[in-house]
Automatic annotation (TrEMBL), chains A, B:
Domain of life: Bacteria
UniProt protein name: RNA-binding protein
InterPro entries: CooT
Organism, scientific name: Dethiosulfatarculus sandiegensis
Length: 64, 64
């Protein structure tokens, strides 16, 4: 199974976990990012997808 | 192993494979996206990461 932990990275490089076990990450019509975990949990944040490290099961967001 | 096929999605929704078996996707200093596959192959494109569908091992880019 390929899912990832999604972290928000601030300007100092500090990583904060937003949601774990995420499958879907997609933009919403109002400029946010929706994350959906493999358990169906959802979170919305105003951010953009910055980078991925899939071998470590990580996706990084940066604030808008 | 968690890697993904990276597709560029145009305005009509057409998906074009850019690089398969990708592990790292990261921004470059000059505003491009660098992709690195699990085999070490690299590609650069002027785009941003739009969305992910990790259970299908897919990441979607949109042109800048």
């Amino acid at each position: 199974m390929c899912e990832a932990a999604v972290f928000m990275v601030d300007d100092s490089g500090k990583e904060d976990l937003v949601l774990g076990e995420v499958d879907l990450i997609e933009p919403t019509d109002d400029g946010q990012i929706r994350m959906v975990s493999i358990f169906g949990e959802q979170k919305l944040v105003r951010a953009r997808i910055k980078s991925t490290n899939l071998s470590e099961h990580k996706v990084f967001l940066s604030p808008m």
